Amino acid sequence: MDFLTSPAFWVALGQIIIIDILLGGDNAVVIALACRKLPPEQRKKGIIFGTAGAIVLRVILIAFAMTLLMVPFLKFVGAILLIWIGVKLLVPEEEGHGDIQGSDKLFAAIKTIIVADLVMSVDNVIAIAGAAQNAGEHSLLLVILGLLISIPIIVWGSQLVIKLMERFPLIITLGGMLLGWIAGGMLVTDPAFVNPDKWTFLPKFGTMDEKGMAVISTTTYWVSHILGALLVLALGKFFASRKKPAAAHG
């Protein structure tokens, strides 16, 4: 239980909770739409069972993703995707949920919630796997704790979270930069860049320890994270500035 006194554990847990809340707002909308036609006495059951099924499925997906991140170049691809997700967070698109069908049958509503959550969870899975990647044997525990804490906040406090984000846009900006921060760390710890015995044509950012974990210098660690965060901020500001004139002319 020594890991409970580790600052790194609690920092990673905080990152996972923030990621879930920032990227999970649509999931709350899906749950509400899927259960809107249920009788009042079944609505709470639909929300609880649908959310529970979505949590279990997401834990499995994230555990699978964390295993895949040990494959060379997948962290690199994941880092690029995270940067794109972070930028998209800073330049929100209009999204509709008209294709989410409500049902007056409990199991149909539960199935809708689980399937929709699966389709919409790609960004969450990549981001959370990246945030938990360096926790070693405790990474899955981090993921489960983060989901258990954040999902109720999303489901029952989604309106409050949305209002806070609207009132304090800095929350969204910092959230996007957090994804860039994680992406920078993912990129330099990709096995292709830290395995000294392979991929000799690539730059080396560190080495692998006996447990297969990336070991990089303190300077590389901080520089990569900071550059990732700044890159998302810069790209987000750039595309946002391009979008405003287009909207004005539209």
How many domains comprise the coordinates?
1
Name the poorly predicted regions. none
Calculate the terminal CA-CA distance, rounded to whole Å.
58 Å
> Share of helix among residues?
over 70%
Principal-axis shape equals globular
Task: List the topology elements.
Blueprint: H1 7-23, H2 25-35, H3 40-68, H4 74-90, H5 106-120, H6 122-132, H7 139-167, H8 170-188, H9 191-194, E1 206-208, E2 214-216, H10 218-249
Antiparallel strand pairs: 1-2
Helix pairs in contact: 1-6, 1-7, 1-8, 2-5, 2-7, 3-5, 3-6, 3-7, 4-6, 4-8, 4-10, 8-10
Describe the structure.
The chain has about 250 residues and is mainly α. It has one domain. Helix content is about 75%, strand content about 0%. The protein contains 10 helices and 2 strands. It has a two-stranded antiparallel sheet. A hairpin with a 5-residue loop joins strand 1 and strand 2. Helix 1 packs across helix 8, helix 3 crosses helix 7 and helix 8 packs across helix 10. The chain is globular, with a radius of gyration of 19 Å. The model has no long low-confidence stretch (mean pLDDT about 75). Belongs to the TerC family. It is found in: Membrane. Keywords: Membrane, Transmembrane, Transmembrane helix. This is TerC family protein. It is a multi-pass membrane protein.
